[in-house]
Amino acid sequence: MKELYIGLRAILKESMSVFTRDALTGRLSFSLLDSFFYFMLPLLILISTFFFDLPINKALNEAIVGVLTIFVALSFQVVFIATDKFSSRIAQLREKKHNEDEKVPVFDDEKNYLKRIGNYSRQFVRQLILLILFSVLIIICSLALILIENHIVNVAVSSIMLPAFYIWLLLLLKMIVSIYNLQMDDIKQNYSLLR
Question: pLDDT tens, 120-137?
C-alpha cells in the first residue's frame, strides 16, 4: 500500500506541470486566467454545490459516466497513435542523418522538431495520466451516488464529482488543443522540408 501511495504522489506531483507548461515548447505558461479556470472555478463549483444543496440526479450521473467512457476509450487510442508517430519520426530523422547525400536542416533548440515532439509526448502522457486519475475519481463518486442513499453524502459526493468532471473536461480539451498544435507543427515542418 505504501508503494501505491508513493507512486500516486509522484504521478500527481509530476502531472501538475500539465497546468503550468506549454505542451510543445515545455515553457512555463501559467496565467491568472489559467489559475481561475483550473483552480478557482472548480473550488467555486465545489462550494456552491455543497452550499446550495445540489446533489447529482441519476440521469446526470449516467450521462457523465457515458461521456467519460467514450472519451477515455478514445484517449487510449490516441496514446498509441502519438507514440507510434513519435517513434516513426525519430527513425525517419535518423535515417536521413545516416544518408550522406541528404542534409538534414538544422533548427535552433526552440524549433527543433524532435525536442518539440518529445516535450509534447511527455506532456501528453502527463495529461493522459491525470485524465485517468480524474476518471477513477469520477467513477468512485458515481458508484457512491448509486450505492449510498443518504442525502448529505450524495451532496458531498456531488460537490466532489462536479468539479472533478469539470477539470476532466478541461484536460480533455487541453489534450485536443495539444494534438491540433502538434499536427499543425508537423505539417509546417514537413512542408518546410519539401522546399
Answer: 777 777 888 888 888 889
Tell me the three cell numbers of residue 127: 495529461
- pLDDT tens digits, 2-12: 787 787 777 77
Tell me how far apart the alpha carbons of residues 75 and 138 are, in angstroms, rounded to a whole number.
Answer: 16
CA distance 180 to 183: 5
Q: Which three cell numbers stand for residue 115?
A: 525536442
Please name the residue ranges forming H helices in the chain: 2-15, 32-35, 41-51, 58-98, 113-147, 151-194
- Please check whether residue 97 lies inside any domain of the structure: yes
**Domain extent for 88:** 76-195
Is 47 within a domain?
no
User: How many structural domains is the chain composed of?
Assistant: 1
CB-based contact 113:89 (threshold 8 Å): yes
